[in-house]
Specification:
Helix Hairpins, 69% helix, 3 domains, mainly alpha
Length: 280
C-alpha cells in the first residue's frame, strides 16, 4: 500500500515500504513521542492507563469484522498494532523487554505449538490441533510452578468469551461431551432449573441458575462450532436495527412509543421483521 502524503512524514520516519522498514519506522515514531521533548500525553501514559484504549481498539476491530468493512479493518488493525508498540515501548524504557523480544517470543511459541507443521507429529483435524495446543501449553513452564489447565484464562475477558475459553481448555484435556446431544440435554436441564428459581422468587438462586444456564448456552454454541459472544453481538446488532425500523414506522404514523401498549408495539415489531426479511 502506498502511503498518502508521504512527503509530510519526516524522512527518518518514512520507512522503505518493506515490512521490516515500516515496522522499524513505527517503533521509531513511538520512541520519539515518548522521548524527552516528545508528546506530553504519550509520555504520561503507563501500562495501566492504556488498558481502556487497548480494549477499545480491539472492539473496533471486531466491529469492522461484524460489518464486513475491509477498508476500515485495515485502519483499525493499525490502531490496534499501535497499542502493542506503545506497551512494548514503555516496557523497553523500564528495561524489561523490547518489541523484538515480543516478536521472538511469539515466533518460538508458534513453532513449538505446531509440531505437525515444523516437526514430525501427524495431526489431521482442527480439533486435534486445538487439543494438542492445549496439552503443549499446559506442559510449558516459565517457572517452577506447574501450570493448571484453567490457570491461563484471563479474568478480564468478557464473561461469554471467558466461558468459551474455559470450555475449550477443559475439552483439550478430554473433559467434554462426545456429541452436541449431551450439551443440549444439559441446556434443557438448566432452563428448567432457572425457570423454577425465577418463579419461586428466590433472587440469589435465580442468579446462580441463570449463570449456569448461560454457561450451558456457551457450551451448546461451542459444540455447534461458533462462539456465543459473536452470536450475541450479531443478535444485538440485528435487534437494534429492527427496533430502529419499528421506531421509524411509529413516528411515521404520528404515534409515540411511551403511549402505546405492548400489543400494539408487537404489531410494529412483526412489520419490522417482515421488512428485514424482504431486504435480505
Amino acid at each position: 500500500m502506498e502511503i498518502k502524503n508521504k512527503k509530510t512524514i519526516p524522512e527518518q520516519f518514512r520507512g522503505d515500504g518493506t515490512l521490516a522498514g515500516e515496522m522499524a519506522a513505527l517503533v521509531a515514531i513511538m520512541g520519539r513521542l515518548r522521548a524527552e521533548g516528545g508528546c506530553p500525553w504519550d509520555r504520561k501514559q503507563t501500562h495501566e492507563s492504556l488498558r481502556p484504549y487497548l480494549l477499545e481498539e480491539t472492539y473496533e476491530v471486531l466491529d469492522c469484522l461484524d460489518r464486513g468493512d475491509i477498508d476500515s479493518l485495515r485502519e483499525e488493525l493499525g490502531d490496534l498494532m499501535l497499542q502493542v508498540v506503545f506497551h512494548a515501548q514503555i516496557a523497553s524504557e523500564s528495561g524489561n523487554f523490547t518489541i523484538v523480544d515480543s516478536i521472538c517470543a511469539i515466533k518460538e511459541k508458534l513453532i513449538n505449538r505446531h509440531p505437525h507443521i515444523f516437526g514430525d507429529l501427524k495431526l489431521e483435524t482442527a480439533e486435534e490441533v486445538r487439543d494438542n495446543w492445549e496439552r503443549i501449553k499446559l506442559n510449558d513452564k516459565s517457572n517452577d510452578t506447574p501450570k493448571t489447565t484453567l490457570g491461563g484464562v484471563p479474568g478480564s475477558l468478557p464473561a461469554l468469551t471467558r466461558a468459551f475459553r474455559v470450555q475449550e481448555k477443559m475439552a483439550g484435556v478430554g473433559f467434554d461431551w462426545d456429541s452436541p446431544d449431551g450439551a443440549l440435554d444439559k441446556l434443557r436441564e438448566e432452563v428448567e432449573e432457572a425457570s423454577e428459581a425465577i418463579l419461586n422468587g428466590n433472587k440469589e438462586e435465580a442468579e446462580e441458575e441463570i449463570g449456569d444456564l448461560l454457561f450451558s448456552v456457551v457450551n451448546a454454541a461451542r459444540m455447534a462450532g461458533f462462539g456465543a459472544e459473536e452470536a450475541l453481538r450479531r443478535s444485538i446488532t440485528k435487534i437494534i436495527s429492527r427496533f430502529n425500523e419499528l421506531e421509524q414506522m411509529v413516528i411515521k404514523d404520528s404515534k409515540s412509543l411511551p403511549d402505546m401498549k405492548l400489543e400494539e408495539m408487537d404489531i410494529y415489531w412483526e412489520k419490522a421483521k417482515l421488512k428485514e426479511k424482504k431486504r435480505s
